[in-house]
C-alpha cells in the first residue's frame, strides 16, 4: 500500500488518519513532481489531476480523497468510521464536504500569503483579515454541529472528525484556532491526542517547520501551484484577483487538468 501525499495536505492527512484508525500499514511518498503540474512519471500516471493524495493498492490507483476514504471504509470495514444510521452518515459527509471545499480554501488562501508570499503590504493584510473572519464563520458552523458531543459523530470518533481535524489544526497553526473554552477548542485538544491524529499532526509540524524558504520554489524553482475551484474562488472573492493575474503573468500558477492550451 502506497500513499502519494504531502504532509501539509489536509486531504492527505484525512486519509492517513483513516488508514491509521483502521491499523492499515502503508508507505508514504511525496511525488517529486508535486506542485509542478508535470505530466511525466508514475504519479501523473496515477492521476491526471496531479493532486495528492493518491492511494496505490496493488494494481488499484485511486485519486480524490473522498473516493479514497470510501474505498478504505469498504476495504477495511472495521472499525467503521461512518455511522450506520443514514441521516448520521449524511451528516458526517456534509461536515467532510464543507471542510474539503470552503474551509480548506480559506486555509490555502492564508498559506498563499504566509508561506508563498503572494501578497504583501495592504493586500496581504486584507487577505489575512478575510481569512481570519471566514475562519471564525466556519468554526462557528463546526461548533454548532459538534454541540455537546465529544465527537462530530456523537459518542465515537469517526469520518467527520478525520475530515475536520486537519482543517482546524491548520487554523491553530496559523494562530486562528477556536476560542479557548469553546467546544471546538476542547474537541481539538481531544482529537490531537488520538494516536492516528498525533502521528499525522507530527508529520504536518515537521513539514511546516521547513516552509520558510517555500516561496522561492515558486519565484525561481519552476513550480506552478494549482489554483482550482474553491481555492481560486477564495482568492477572487477575498479581493486577491491581482494575485491570480500575477501568477498567470509569471507562470507560477496553473489551473486544473486538462490544460486549456
Ligand atoms: N479534491 C481533491 C483535492 C486534492 C488537492 O487539491 N491536493 C493538493 C494538495 S493539498 C495538490 O495536490 N495540489 C497540486 C498542486 O498544487 O500542484 C481531493 O480531495 O483529493
Protein model, in words:
By secondary structure, the protein is of the alpha/beta class. It has a domain at 2-75: Glutaredoxin (3-Layer(aba) Sandwich), CATH 3.40.30. Helix content is 56%, strand content 7%. The protein is built from eleven helices and six strands. The protein has helices spanning 10-21, 41-46, 65-75, 86-114, 121-146, 159-173, 183-191, 195-208, 214-219, 229-237, 241-250; strands spanning 2-4, 27-29, 54-57, 60-63, 225-226, 253-254. Strands 2-1-3-4 form a four-stranded mixed β-sheet, covered by helices on one side. Helix 1 (10-21) links the parallel strand 1 and strand 2 (27-29). The longest helix is centred in the middle third of the chain and has 29 residues, at 86-114. The protein starts with a strand and ends in a 7-residue tail after the last strand. The model has no long low-confidence stretch (mean pLDDT 96). The site of glutathione has 15 residues, from helix 3 and strand 5. Glutathione (GSH) is lined by residues 6, 9, 11, 35, 37, 50-53, 64-66, 100, 225-226.
Summarize the structure.
By secondary structure, this protein is of the alpha/beta class. The chain is built from eleven helices and six strands. The chain has a domain of 74 residues: Glutaredoxin (3-Layer(aba) Sandwich), CATH 3.40.30.
Strand composition percent: 5-15%
Shape type: globular
Structural class estimated from helices and strands: alpha/beta
Identify the bound ligands. Answer: glutathione
Which CATH class of one domain is shown?
Alpha Beta
Radius of gyration (Å) = 18 Å
Strand numbers in spatial order across the main sheet: 2-1-3-4
Our count of helices gives 11
CATH architecture of one domain: 3-Layer(aba) Sandwich
CATH fold group of one domain: Glutaredoxin
**Order of SSEs:** EHEHEEHHHHHHHEHHE
Amino acid at each position: 500500500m502506497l500513499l502519494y501525499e504531502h504532509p501539509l495536505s489536509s486531504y492527505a492527512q484525512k486519509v492517513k488518519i483513516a488508514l491509521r484508525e483502521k491499523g492499515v500499514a502503508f508507505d508514504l511518498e511525496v511525488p517529486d513532481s508535486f506542485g509542478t503540474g508535470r505530466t511525466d512519471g508514475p504519479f501523473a500516471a496515477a492521476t491526471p489531476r496531479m493532486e495528492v493524495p493518491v492511494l496505490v493498492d496493488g494494481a488499484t490507483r485511486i485519486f480524490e480523497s473522498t473516493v479514497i476514504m470510501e474505498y478504505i471504509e469498504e476495504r477495511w470495514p472495521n472499525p467503521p468510521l461512518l455511522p450506520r444510521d443514514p441521516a448520521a452518515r449524511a451528516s458526517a459527509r456534509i461536515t467532510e464536504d464543507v471542510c474539503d471545499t470552503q474551509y480548506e480554501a480559506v486555509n490555502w488562501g492564508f498559506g498563499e500569503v504566509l508561506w508563498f508570499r503572494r501578497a504583501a503590504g495592504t493586500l496581504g493584510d486584507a487577505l489575512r483579515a478575510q481569512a481570519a473572519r471566514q475562519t471564525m464563520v466556519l468554526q462557528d458552523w463546526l461548533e454548532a454541529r459538534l454541540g455537546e458531543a465529544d465527537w462530530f459523530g456523537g459518542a465515537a470518533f469517526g469520518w467527520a472528525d478525520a475530515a475536520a481535524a486537519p482543517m482546524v489544526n491548520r487554523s491553530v497553526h496559523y494562530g486562528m484556532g477556536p476560542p479557548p473554552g469553546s467546544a471546538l477548542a476542547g474537541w481539538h485538544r481531544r482529537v490531537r491526542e488520538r494516536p492516528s491524529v498525533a502521528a499525522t499532526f507530527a508529520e504536518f509540524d515537521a513539514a511546516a517547520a521547513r516552509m520558510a524558504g517555500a516561496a522561492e520554489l515558486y519565484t525561481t524553482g519552476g513550480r506552478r501551484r494549482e489554483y482550482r475551484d474553491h481555492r481560486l474562488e477564495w482568492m477572487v472573492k477575498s479581493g486577491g484577483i491581482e494575485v491570480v493575474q500575477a501568477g498567470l503573468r509569471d507562470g507560477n500558477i496553473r489551473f486544473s487538468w486538462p490544460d486549456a492550451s
